[in-house]
Amino acid sequence: MSIVAGIETSSTESVEHFDVLIVGAGISGIDAAYYLQKDCPGKSFALLEVQESFGGTWLTHKYPGIRSDSDLFTFGYGWKPWKGVPIATAEEILTYLDEALDEQDIRGHIRFQHDIKDATWSSEDKQWMLLAIRGDNGEQVEFTCNFLWMCQGYYRHSEGYTPEFPGAERFKGLIVHPQTWPEDLDYKDKNVLVIGSGATAATIIPAMAEDCAHITMLQRSPTFFHAGENRNDTANMLRELDVPDEWTHEIARRKILHDQKTITYRSFNDSQALKEELIAGTKSYLPQGYDVEKHFTPSYRPWRQRLAFVPNGDLFEGIASGKASVVTDQIETFTENGILLQSGEKLEADIIVTATGFNLSALGDINFTIDGEALNFADTWAHRGILFSGIPNMAWVFGYLRTSWTMRADMVAEFVCRLLNHMGDKGVDVVTPQLREEDRDMPERPWVDPHNFNAGYLARLMHIMPKQGDRDPWLHTQDYYTDKDTLPAADLDDGTLIYR
Ligand SMILES: Cc1cc2nc3c(=O)[nH]c(=O)nc-3n(C[C@H](O)[C@H](O)[C@H](O)COP(=O)(O)OP(=O)(O)OC[C@H]3O[C@@H](n4cnc5c(N)ncnc54)[C@H](O)[C@@H]3O)c2cc1C
Fold it and tell me: What is the DSSP code (8-state) at residue 335?
């Protein structure tokens, strides 16, 4: 018997061993498996996943209208062409991943319903021991591996983030968080109030507007939106010419990255003009005289938070038709029938949707121990934002926040496979990042520079994340255009990786 998270569990006798264990069967875990098979053939591996199926984010979220907010040419893999329109529903993304599992023969490597609780490194054994609880029978199972590839995402899947709203307990209606959406929720002819104005709110509102009596988006402050048709002209033209899907995918991807580079550059160097263009785009979908200044003019620089794409302007069409409306104000208190605002205005609702984001979680809420000592992840220095000082044989896939996540997942996967092969060539079993003498006085910087990207969920929990320094390889750039050159060329013998 042993105690895991306060629960007594019975353990099975055998411990399975793999060269590599991948935590999570979301988009990054499947990507890791693909690259392992391609670049490190012969390495045994398994993916351990707490949920009953694959897909991660796209399985967890079931709210109305759930879709990507980035295009699937870049959010899809470099190695599997996307054949649809750029913005995809969760269902379409799951179908794409489902195909990838079959095409690449990965499905059989996944162990579903394995909730990993502990990860313990032993320098003596040169391996990780993972302890998981099985969801189907409650059994405790153990695995060992040489290398641990963390693809667990960056937020807690079991529950979303809801701030403590004053008086919430008085509200007689239903409060729902998009991350734990009741699939049988009946909102027909109901008054719905959505708190928040990020990508989730912008998705839910047009999807529900038709059926609700009325739906209101309540925001504290406005967000930038980028409205446009859900189509990619480059891909459409190439498809018309019968260009192979692989080429179409690659060319459309390069064009999107090229265009995004211009936007990123302009967000720093020409931000006022970019701001005006985005706002003008929004304005073009709204009725004459609509108060765009109040509801759709953010105070921050564009791109400091992900730009929420509004396909075909559907959010604004709901507003224009009168089915949806926007209120920009602060909550004074919840009441029995809705919300009282600081301005004194009252909003009535049957259902309140708290589109208030998620809880950042470092390392999948797994207890990490290294040679008997509990790991405090925040004490570590990020090595290229992939490996971490003092943590042997472990990599974490943290994708891009502005560019599509997967663009980084692909590059991290190539880097990890190169590292594993390099270790094989050297005949070593262990790699641990370590500061060089000249790195010891480096200034500490947050995991993600808030001047570069500043989303609420990151700001709330930045203190639990690793730190970065001010020089290579201790930088986590969050910049695709830098990483695409530096990561493939990274020197694995620069003195910051200690092998044994
Ligand atoms: C609603 C929503 C929309 C998004 N849209 C976009 C977008 O359009 N573009 C973009 O670039 N990014 C987007 N993101 C960010 C998104 O999370 C990533 O892009 C991407 O899906 C992450 O993939 P992942 O595989 O790294 O992590 P996840 O999708 O988070 O998957 C991680 C998996 O690990 C499993 N896991 C975690 N901990 C454990 C444990 N202890 N034991 C076992 N299994 C565990 C989880 O169950 C999950 O299946 C969005 C995020 C959300 C929440």
Answer: -
